[in-house]
Write a structure and sequence with these properties.
With 109 residues, the protein is α+β, with helices and mostly antiparallel strands. It contains 2 helices and 8 strands. The protein has a single domain, classed as Alpha-Beta Plaits, CATH 3.30.70. It is globular, with a radius of gyration of 15 Å.
Length: 109
C-alpha cells in the first residue's frame, strides 16, 4: 500500500554532521522512493507551544520548522524510518499515513 511519511524537524537538526532534512531526502533516494522533499514552515506552533511567524522573523534560524515528506510503499517508508533511528535521528514528530496516489494533468514530451 502507498503511504506518505511526514517528518517534522528543525533547521538546526543534524545527523552525521549533515542537516537532518538533507539526510532524510538522500536516504529516501538511496531506497528508490519515488518522491521526497522538504519545505520550511512559515507560521504555526509546536508541541512546546513556541509560536512561529517567519514573516516577522520571531524565531531563531536553527529553530525554524521544516516538514519533510516522502511518498512510496509503506514497507519502504518503514525501512527508511528504521535506518534513521539506527543512525540516532533526534526525537521528532513523525506521521505515516496510507494514501492513494495518482497523477493529474497534462505531460509534455
Amino acid at each position: 500500500m502507498n503511504a506518505v511519511l511526514r517528518l517534522y524537524v528543525l533547521a538546526g537538526d543534524r545527523l552525521g554532521g549533515q542537516p537532518l532534512e538533507r539526510v532524510i531526502v538522500d536516504t529516501a533516494k538511496s531506497l528508490h522512493l519515488p518522491w521526497a522533499f522538504s519545505r520550511p514552515g512559515i507560521a504555526g506552533y509546536g508541541r512546546h507551544g513556541l509560536e512561529v511567524d517567519l514573516m516577522l522573523l520571531e524565531i531563531r534560524p536553527d529553530r525554524m520548522p521544516i516538514t519533510v515528506q516522502v511518498f512510496g510503499a509503506e514497507e519502504q517508508l518503514t525501512s527508511l524510518l528504521l535506518q534513521l533511528q539506527e543512525r540516532q535521528m533526534p526525537d521528532r514528530t513523525v506521521v505515516l499515513e496510507p494514501i492513494e496516489m495518482s497523477t493529474v494533468g497534462h505531460r509534455t514530451g
